[in-house]
Amino acid sequence: MKFIVHVMPRKVVLDTQGRSVESVLQQQGFSVLGCRVGKRIEVDLSGDDQAANRLQVEKMAKEILTNPLIEDFEIEARP
Amino acid sequence: MSQRKIGVLRFPGTNCDADVLEFARELGYKAEYLWHADRFSHQNWEALIVPGGFSYGDHLRCGALAAKSPAMQSLAEGVKNGVPVLGICNGFQILCEARLLPGALLKNQSGRFVDKVVGLKLQNSAERFYRNMPVEMKLPIAHGEGRYFVEDDELKRLQDQSQIWLTYSENPNGSVADIAGVLSPSRKVAGLMPHPERALHDWMGGTDGRSFL
């Protein structure tokens, strides 16, 4: 059973990667008001209890996949 | 000098381990490596050092994967039992990811890797490392992700509890409150971005690192 964890830097954190990308986008002529760069993590779990698996993914996200001090996450279940 | 030893942890991608081992031996200690995949008994070690480098290639986040290793579990046990721990550069990142020190290290504000000698000020003393030493010193830094971050309420807590160990005289990376190193509440765990092991001899450019062990 697949889940996607979308990870983004928290708004309170200066995202230097996003800033660099924004700068190059603008140099290339795109009209950009802002840009933030995160990560997309795919996790594949065994079993078919979606609720239980989702809880596992939340635990993974909080303990390993993200650093809650500097990152936010959202979990998306894949059919 | 103590009969016990200083342990130097190594992870895949650690590259300052040899320098840190020499650092400890040069200053009169017996020192040995501790491999990331192995648990160890904290009783055998007078102090533990987590050296710099690019553990796990900085994958996921700097220090995030190393923080979960068996050796770090043993190190955390050691911390509970009062073993002093020093984290240098990636070692500082690992200790923060392991929640043994507060805060996180982010990409430098400039977006550039910074490699130079910086002036530092001692704000509060660690229990074991850099005791009774001059308030000002110079050490080299070499990092792309050294910007120390904590939120305002946590920063106030660190200030009130005297957990800010070292600050930069001229902030090279955008660290909040110019913080270069922090202490745990017990002051036995200490982490810093600069490299004391690279300041042991005049030919290295300075000897302020000698005061750290």
Explain this structure to me?
The complex is a heterodimer of chains A (79) and B (213). With 79 residues, chain A is α+β, with helices and mostly antiparallel strands. Chain A has 2 helices and 3 strands, in the order βαβαβ. The relative contact order of chain A is 0.35. The model of chain A has no long low-confidence stretch (mean pLDDT 96). In chain B, the strands form 2 sheets. Chain B has a 9-stranded mixed sheet, with helices on both faces. In chain B, strands 5-8 form a two-stranded antiparallel sheet. Chain B is globular. By secondary structure, chain B is of the alpha/beta class. Chains A and B meet through helix 1 of A and loops of B.
What is the topology?
The complex is a heterodimer of chains A (79) and B (213).
Chain A: E1 2-9, H1 16-27, E2 39-44, H2 50-65, E3 71-77
Antiparallel strand pairs in A: 1-2, 1-3
Chain B: E1 5-10, H1 17-26, E2 30-35, E3 45-50, H2 70-80, E4 85-88, H3 90-97, E5 104-106, E6 114-122, E7 136-143, E8 147-149, H4 152-160, E9 164-168, E10 179-183, E11 189-192
Parallel strand pairs in B: 1-2, 1-3, 3-4, 4-11
Antiparallel strand pairs in B: 5-8, 6-7, 6-9, 9-10, 10-11
Notable features of this structure?
heterodimer; A: 79 residues; alpha+beta; 2 helices; 35% helix; 27% strand; B: 213 residues; alpha/beta; nine-stranded mixed beta sheet
Write a short abstract of this structure.
The complex is a heterodimer of chains A (79) and B (213). With 79 residues, chain A is α+β, with helices and mostly antiparallel strands. Chain A has helices at 16-27, 50-65, and strands at 2-9, 39-44, 71-77.
Query: Cα-atom Rg of chain A, whole angstroms?
Result: 16 Å
> What is the oligomer described by this structure?
heterodimer
Q: Low-confidence stretches of chain B at least 5 residues in length (pLDDT < 50)?
A: none
SSE topology string of chain A: EHEHE
What percentage of the residues of chain B does DSSP assign to strands (E)? 25-35%
Helix content of chain B: 10-25%
Number of strands of chain B: 11
Per DSSP, the total helix count of chain B is 4
Secondary-structure element order of chain B, as H and E?
A: EHEEHEHEEEEHEEE
